[in-house]
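Chapter review: from sequence to fold.
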Amino acid sequence: MRAVAADAPELLTLQLACWVQEAFDNPGAHIPALHESLDDVRHWLGTWDTYVVRRAGRLVAAVRARLEGDAWDIGRVMVAPDLQGQGVGRVLLEHIQAVAPAEATSYVLFTGAGSLRNQRMYKKAGFRLRRDLPAPEGAVILTKPRR
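The token string follows.
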């Protein structure tokens, strides 16, 4: 379901829970998600298409995307730590690609260079590492053409 403004506090909590592992997997990397405030989350909810998954009322997963040129920029693929490894992230990734606007000719995302589990999931979904594209420090870019 599409996120609403009232989801911001739970999104912030989920984001912090998810990116702690990223910090362990990518020592020394600057991870913006760990430094955002509730106001920051409220702000990006207004500029990104964001979707959430709830189980028994609990917000357990989310993803966001927005059009950057002709690329559907996917970000903040997050699943509660106790539910990771159950396919929820894969479903989120499929959903966010399915809702891309017609103008999108490709998908792009980034993850930590040391986030091998994330990279495996993205590669299984058809994304390819693009070492030729500039990535944030400590991260890698992955892209996928839209079919």
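Two observations follow directly from the output. The first helix runs from residue 8 to 25. The radius of gyration is 14 Å.
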